[in-house]
Design a protein that fits this description.
Layout (H helix, E strand, L loop, with lengths): L6 E7 L10 H16 L3 E8 L3 E8 L5 H23 L1 H4 L19 E5 L2 H13 L20 H6 L13
Antiparallel strand pairs: 1-3, 1-4, 2-3
Helix pairs in contact: 1-2
């Protein structure tokens, strides 16, 4: 598979760019799922950021797992978890994700997430910088400095401290 054994830049977006990941409890569902993938030796995670309506991750799929399967399972599981949380606590919000589809009643993620292989260290570093600068962009203003935004790996690269328990330095 093309790019299978390289670090990949993966982006998934909430349906219609809705801000479903704004609440911390929803971001924590994503973090727990990432932690599981690492613990289960499906991926190594080198960087990430969770934004209000999308997330980016730099990861490498571990053998014998395949990138499309890991991505599909991750998005399916996180959508189920988010749907369950909305069903229990915010049914009116869940209705905003109702779709007219043959295979589903609700849809959390946009179809066709982006996955770009990073064939060089330079590309990996460029994607990592992009990830870390996301929260400080004028349109978001989630933090003044990248390392001050909690839901990101920026602080890990600055202080070499993994608050999430699943990060690996991209040079390791």
């Amino acid at each position: 598979m093309d790019g299978q054994r390289h670090i990949s830049f993966f982006t998934a977006t909430i349906l219609e760019w809705k801000h479903l990941l704004k609440p911390d409890k929803h971001k924590l569902l994503i973090l727990e799922s990432l932690r599981f993938l690492v613990k289960d030796k499906r991926v190594k995670i080198y960087g990430f950021v969770l934004m209000p309506n999308h997330f980016h991750v730099l990861w490498k799929i571990e053998e014998p797992h395949l990138r499309p399967n890991v991505q599909r399972d991750f998005l399916k599981f996180t959508s189920q978890q988010l749907k369950l949380e909305l069903t229990q606590h915010h049914p009116a919000v869940l209705e905003k994700f109702r779709v007219d589809a043959k295979d589903r009643q609700y849809q959390i993620w946009e179809r066709n997430p982006l996955s770009v292989p990073c064939y060089t260290v330079a590309v990996t570093e460029q994607k990592l910088q992009y990830i870390h600068l996301n929260p400080v962009q004028e349109k978001w203003k989630l933090a003044k400095q990248p390392e001050n935004y909690y839901y990101s790996s920026a602080k890990f690269y600055l202080e070499n401290k993994d608050d999430f328990g699943f990060l690996t330095h991209y040079l390791d």
